[in-house]
Amino acid sequence: MSTLRQPAAGLKQNGLDSESELVSINVTPLVDITLVLLIIFMVTSSLVLRETVEVDFPRPAAGASRTPVLLSIVMNEDSTLLLDGAEVSEAELRKQVVLAIGKDKQTGAVVSAHKSVSYGKVVRLIDAIKGDGVERFVLNIQSQRR
Fold first, then answer.
1. What is the pLDDT of residues 51-77, one digit of tens each?
2. Which fold has domain 70-139?
């Protein structure tokens, strides 16, 4: 009495089960998704770079034959003005700023003020020198050390 044996459910004729067929992973979809994401990041990064703030970087010293002129303007606690260390009136300050701009259009200013001077007076001073032609200025501050 010979009986033919039917393979059990999930087994193949060669004796391997169906799970052994899943040993290899198809990497083609993974590569496709990776390339699509790479392209998306490349396109969006170029859009993000266009929306950045423009910064006027300093020029290299090798190409520049001149040094920029900087005016040091200080407002003391009693609102007296100092231009490069010498006490001046506001009218004299504006006259000296116009003379400096006449010599060099790239003249800048370093504005310092005592902490007790009102904010409005400092802004009025900045407006005055900007009105006289100074396009670049910095505010001198004292950092708090901890």
1. 555 667 777 666 555 667 788 888 888
2. Nucleotidyltransferase; domain 5 (3.30.420)
